[in-house]
Write a structure and sequence with these properties.
This protein is an alpha+beta fold. It folds into two domains: about 80 residues, Beta-grasp domain (Ubiquitin-like (UB roll), Roll); about 70 residues, Orthogonal Bundle (DNA polymerase, domain 1). Helices cover about 30% and strands about 15% of the residues. It has five helices and five strands. Strands 2-1-5-3-4 form a five-stranded mixed beta sheet, sandwiched between helices. Strand 3 and strand 4 form a beta hairpin. It starts with 16 loop residues before the first strand and ends with a helix.
């Protein structure tokens, strides 16, 4: 006797949609999105905020790091519906003005802490989150490497990034 298993397979032809309302970079945003849409896709495709990069889509590389309610989070592991009601901050909101970089960005520039730049937005968002926590920072090489352990860079070897974190701490009086 042949088993009927069709009824056990969920019908994926439907794409349920819901309305989400969140604040992104200080602006109230309301959109109707698929319940399966990732926050990274929402930021990039719905809002045009392409500074949030998508690398591995598994939460390993850290390129998609944004702040969700003040904490660093992986936007490739977060559904847009999970961010409903949250405050999200992306790399586009970090610079002080169109003409002035944030001290962390300035430190990256001064210390030549980037090459291709793909990982840089996620690194900056991660470092910024750690600096904003106001907890004591371990600025030893090991401490900074631990701070950066959730962000992968394939180009730099991290030496200049470590120097940039120290320089940013100087610029921010940390």
């Amino acid at each position: 006797m042949k088993r009927q298993i069709k009824h056990l397979i969920p019908d994926c032809s439907e794409d349920p949609k819901v309305e989400v309302a969140l604040t992104v970079n200080g602006q109230a945003v309301r959109r109707t999105v698929s319940v399966r849409m990732l926050l990274s896709d929402f930021l990039r495709h719905e809002l045009g905020l392409t500074g949030t990069h998508v690398g591995c889509e598994h939460g390993v590389c850290g390129c998609c790091t944004v702040h969700i309610d003040g904490k660093a989070g992986r936007s490739c592991l977060t559904l847009a519906v999970q961010a409903n009601g949250c405050k999200v901050r992306t790399i586009e909101d970090v610079a002080i003005s169109d003409k002035a970089l944030h001290p962390i960005q300035q430190a990256f520039k001064e210390c030549h802490a980037l090459q291709c730049g793909f990982c840089t937005p996620g690194m900056v968002m991660n470092i910024l989150s750690r600096f904003e926590e106001k907890a004591p920072l371990d600025l030893s090489e090991e401490g900074i490497r631990d701070m950066l352990s959730g962000n992968l860079c394939r180009c730099t070897g991290y030496i200049n990034i470590i120097a940039a974190v120290r320089r940013a701490a100087e610029l921010l009086g940390r």
